Amino acid sequence: MSVELRSVTKQYDKLKALDQINLKIEKGEFFVILGPSGSGKTTLLRAVAGLERVDSGNILLEGRDVTEVPPHKREVAMVFQNYALYPHKTVLENIVMPVENQLDKREILRRVEELSSRLKIDALLGRYPSELSGGQQQRAALARALIKRPRVFLMDEPLSNLDAIQRISARKLIREVQRENNVTTLYVTHDQIEAMALADRVAVMNNGKIIQVGTPEEVYSNAESEFVASFFGNPPTSIIDGKIVGLEGKIGVRPEDVEIGDGDLKGQITDVEFWGDRYLVYVYFADEEIRAFHHKRLKIGQEIRFKFKKISGPWNS
């Protein structure tokens, strides 16, 4: 099912949470909405779910205007940041809640068996949420959302309560489940790594507006604004004065686009971080600081020569 937002606006007092949002998500696409806290990304997701009324504009699902349609009639399912599992119900009872009055018992049990096996929670069905780890709770929440066989899957920072190792396996699971079911997915996060790992396409949001849309590769390599360049990617782009290379305005340089050991620019190493297969080097020059990757550990205080292989911009404030 395709999802489309046409000139959608939502305002709280003087704050525009959504400012003329125009967006088209294709059927079966894994679409990530990325932005800092307060950018409007969760409001956008809740508007698609029908949990938030918009002030103006239209929301369409598969070409049908659902702007005034209640949530339970939109064929969407949502996984919340805190999973929203009922503590007094078992995992099984939580999973079947969305369909217990809509399907016969045999079909419900068949779906539970299928999902619990796929998500590796079949041994946990009799437990309560308080008896589960964060990763297990997340899998239970996924099963509850998928049992309805929704045509649109909405996910609001579902990995934020997991540790770094759990996040990696959970990302893989979510992508596999999405591919297997070919369900259109809108996924909200502030984590650039999640966005790059999961998205077919990503929309970067800030201050209630869509700043840039593209594949992760497009947004990473061709940032259209200083905000996108500095926000998208880890480590972030170094933003410096373009006058250094004869340009007006600000320019961006990714760490991998700085070549140390040759070039016309000179700087001094101020810090070095070990990143496993390489080092992240901080270089101070011309009253600016940039980050660069290098294959060897350089000494703090060492003078180096370098050049830029590629830059983004320039952008004028």
Automatic annotation (TrEMBL):
One of its GO terms (cellular component) is ATP-binding cassette (ABC) transporter complex, substrate-binding subunit-containing. InterPro entries: AAA+_ATPase (IPR003593), ABC_transporter-like_ATP-bd (IPR003439), ABC_transporter-like_CS (IPR017871), ABC_transpr_FbpC (IPR015853), ABC_transpr_MalK/UgpC-like (IPR047641), Mo/tungstate-bd_C_term_dom (IPR008995), NA-bd_OB-fold (IPR012340), P-loop_NTPase (IPR027417). One of its GO terms (molecular function) is ATP hydrolysis activity. Pfam families: ABC_tran (PF00005), TOBE_2 (PF08402). Signal peptide: none annotated. The keyword Cell membrane applies. Keywords: ATP-binding, Cell membrane, Membrane, Nucleotide-binding, Translocase, Transport. SUPFAM superfamilies: MOP-like (SSF50331), P-loop containing nucleoside triphosphate hydrolases (SSF52540). Residues 3-232 form the ABC transporter domain. PANTHER family: MALTODEXTRIN IMPORT ATP-BINDING PROTEIN MSMX, TREHALOSE IMPORT ATP-BINDING PROTEIN SUGC. This is ABC transporter ATP-binding protein. The lineage of its organism: Archaea, Thermoproteota, Thermoprotei, Sulfolobales, Sulfolobaceae.
